[in-house]
Amino acid sequence: MKKTNLFVTICALMVSSIINFAHAQETPNQEWNQFRGVNRSGSADNVQLTSFNEKTPKLIWKKKLGDGFSELTIAGGNIYTMISERQDSITGNEFIAAFDAKTGDEIWRTKVDKMFFDTFGDGPRSTPAIGENNIYSLSSYGKLTANSKKDGKTLWQIDFMKEYGSKIPRWGFSSSPVLVGKNVIVEVGGTDSRAFMAFDKETGKEVWKKGEGMATYNSPVVTKINEEECIIFANGRKVYSLTTAGDTLWTYNSPVSNPTGMPIVFDGNKIFISAVRNPAFIVLEVNDNKAKEISRGTSMKNDYSSSLHHNGYVYGFHVAALQCISVETGEKKWTKRGFGKGSLIRLGDQLMVLSDKGKLIQVKATPEAYTELGSIQAIEGKSWTAPSFANGKIYLRNLTEMACYELK
């Protein structure tokens, strides 16, 4: 009898472990808690979607939103993003704000800086990072702020221009912070070897500093290369690989100048980097903490948005053309115009492409041919912010409003 009970207990534990493991595997698709999603790759796996031509996505809500380009981050049933509100034609404020993901209704907003104005679009550029209890954002004028997720209370703030001599980029501070362990890590662009810095998440206290370089429009990616965790920064004409403790693993003098597209790490030790000027892209291979260029080409010039890698191919916007290229040879597999300078994410084996005028297009993530599965006019106006995905819903933003659609 005791043996039977022991056997039953073991079986129950095994089943529970399998269920918990499956849940853990699904978790990355349930939140979009930082720039470009959980892994900063612009992708979510284990997602199966019906063709738009078979079932049109259902609009759940659409809400007015203050100006800005920050992605919509989703965690714990809430949306967190940066917005702005003008007081008149030349003044206004930037905020970090929380919204109910089910309804789009505002929960709270907290001022973090004055408003950035520009002919291409006003308001914040950076996407916040969501921690367990707090949210971390970077304003257009370089103020890194920690706020409580619960009520928006400001916990600490650091002014990069005042404290570190950083200079505001032409189109505002745009790099999106990343959370690693107890630290928030971000491109600062400060003087005296303070291009990149880590700050304690709870106190804002400086933890480490590294590198020379002005603030640019690229965001760091935390990854593993040859099984070693590292942080990759692409700044100006240099690529940095740092440990999470801020030590330099390697640097590489790159022919690619000022990339805006995030570096893409694939195959365990390769990095794809793209920018709008020639050479359009390079691929680096890293071994024994030494990087070398293994290919370059002109077939993918990322301008406003980042590309993504899937099964040996890179999908992205070659300036204003949606394109698929071989990551090994740079060979163009297919191209499709008509979407302007759009953006995209991958959900399972499908691409969700957002045109710069708010059209959402479903495309197969295959190099064989451009295969469209349907489209909807999801949102109106200038749409330069990439979609976000969580719990079966896609969240979209243009310059002044946001919308949520249910995908099946």
TrEMBL record:
Q: Which residue ranges run through the membrane? A: none
Keyword Signal attached: yes
**What keywords is this UniProt entry annotated with?**
Signal
Q: Ranges for the Pyrrolo-quinoline quinone repeat domain?
A: 95-335
Which positions carry the signal peptide feature in this UniProt record? 1-24
One Pfam family from the record: PQQ_2
Q: Does the keyword NADP apply?
A: no
Name of the protein this chain belongs to: Pyrrolo-quinoline quinone repeat domain-containing protein
Source organism of the structure: Marinifilum caeruleilacunae
